[in-house]
Amino acid sequence: MLGEALSYFLHFYTLVYHIFVPCVDPEQLLVKSVDQHQYLGKWFFKAAVSRREADISKFKMFDNIAFTMEDTADRTLVLTGYMRMGDDCIKHNWTYHIQPGRDDMVLEGRTYRRNLLWNGTWANCQDCIIFQEVEPPLKETDSEDSLNRFMLYARQKDVDSEVVTTFLRNSACHNMKESVRLPHEKEFCI
Questions:
Q1: Surface-to-core class of residue 18, CB atoms within 10 Å of its CB (0-12 exposed, 13-18 middle, 19+ buried)
Q2: pTM of the prediction?
Q3: Nearest 5°: phi and psi at 162?
Q4: Per residue in 169-188, pLDDT tens?
């Protein structure tokens, strides 16, 4: 009886909480069923968020980042990053495999990392995509993932600032309050 009453109370509390503090949940794009060809081409990094600053600190060294996504073979995508650091351009390739029965992409060389795609509508942007990287806890006794970050990418170099603001606000609502935006003061390397 007490357990049932507690269950009803928690359900009611959750409903009331979401009325006053509505968190918008992102919509996952299941890579096994999405038309990956619509995501090929150029993407521009806009922001990254996480619960921990360490998960996104490496982005702070860059002025801007652009990517191209290409498919090279059956169910294989190559992401080429063009990163501006000072006056230098850094180019790096990542190869992702889409495997049957999985809803994430497998990064070559880091098969333990989950790479998930989310709909850009979470940032109120139809021409955006959100990429999540998750690595399991380092120890079995750890309760938190060793890496968990979301990155917002847009098709255009310049997007309305409200897009990034919406992304940061929705992320903060999910307790991802650490964020980074790049200055975009120099030319893109792409």
A1: exposed
A2: 0.84
A3: -65, -25
A4: 999 999 999 999 999 999 99
